[in-house]
Specification:
Elements (H helix, E strand, L loop, with lengths): L8 H4 L2 E2 L9 E5 L6 E9 L3 E8 L2 E6 L10 H8 L5 E12 L2 E3 H5 L1 H4 L3 E11 L2 E2 L5 H11 L6 E3 L3 E3 L1 H10 L4 E6 L7 E10 L2 E11 L11 E7 L2 E8 L5 H11 L3 E2 L14 E14 L1 E2 L5 E2 L2 E6 L13
Amino acid sequence: MTAAPKKPAALADARKTKQPAWVQPMLATLTRNYFSDPEWLFEPKLDGIRCLAFKQATDVKLLSRNKLDLTGGYPEVVRALERQRSGSFIVDGEIAAVKGDVTSFSLLQQARRQKVPIVYFIFDVIHIDGHDVTKVALKERKDLLERSLRWGGPLSFVSHIEEDGKEFYEAACARGWEGVIAKLASSRYTPGRSRDWLKFKCSNEQEFVIAGYTDPQGQRTAFGALLVGYYEDGELRYAGKVGTGYNAATLRDLLAKMEPLRQPESPFAGKPPMRKGVHWVRPRLVAQIGFSEWTSDGRLRHPRYLGLRKDKKPREVVRERP
């Protein structure tokens, strides 16, 4: 008689439960304290869209961090997940466009037109084959994840290094990566922002709410610059004017999205940052913005537009502080 297959060690302590329809993702906390530690794992920080994949039998659904359905946008990822031998699972990762060994959010916006490969980088497992593994240590979850799925094509397992986090961060920045995520090897998967996962960022980049735009000047068409901000204590704070990072098609597309949102008054708290040649819009659109630094008066220095984000609600946009 053939022996039954041995249950993976990570599932021995996992609870057997019905697979949930939604799980709030675990989020990393920004830090500037870059370190090396044998009790931590270090992964590349990916520049794409956070995505949780839910599989039940042959049914696969992709959801963003705010439950936006991404399933129809990435059919190659869905097909690869449908073919997996595990009957059911919830995995966590990032959908990104890849050029060389660099992921790029702005490139993801144009990936279909430019025929750039789209990859689902998977770094964690939350539920698998009827077992809730959120209380299993991260290192064991990653071992389970790597052995449970077939990798290749649009699915990539996010590997890690141990101990040498500071050196890994320096190498990541030299290669043009967005940064590194440090994760406590013994950590459980907990919903929301956590200090068990930390972000080491090579460049300054985050989401901002679009609250207005200026008239075009010179040879520019459609509009001149976006006026962007973030929420603090329930109020929208002005962060600056973003005038670079656009091509002609982007300018037209953004203007078409902003014009139906126009309103007469500034949505920013306090005195409007400017009045002449400005059109205010309801704060409904979220843009990814890269910049060199924050000025002493809370403005962005050298900001550049990278793309629109549909995976984050405007009210969730706050200033990222270490």
